[in-house]
Amino acid sequence: xxxxxxxxxxxxxxxxxxxxxxxxxxxxxxxxxxxxxxxxxxxxxxxxxxxxxxxxxxxxxxxxxxxxxxxxxxxxxxxxxxxxxxxxxxxxxxxxxxxxxxxxx
Length: 105
What we know:
By secondary structure, the chain is mainly alpha-helical. It has helices at 9-12, 46-64, 69-76, 80-89.
């Protein structure tokens, strides 16, 4: 794998224009900020925000590797079995793969 292909989990789920040492100047720049949720709505839990970040990172790694799960696990610096667990836990599927692909076997 080339150095160009290697990315850390932080790079895969980073927010454009945000650096690790910047402090947000307004609530609109916060990572959990969502402009479609009104400020009066309850704040999403940390567990929910973490799950969303995991899903985004895993999907991006899978797309970058053409859904090669072993290479995606390497990109994310997790074990192959750990990645498979997260894929099943979050019910992540490719657009080309039908949801019941394993049910037909």
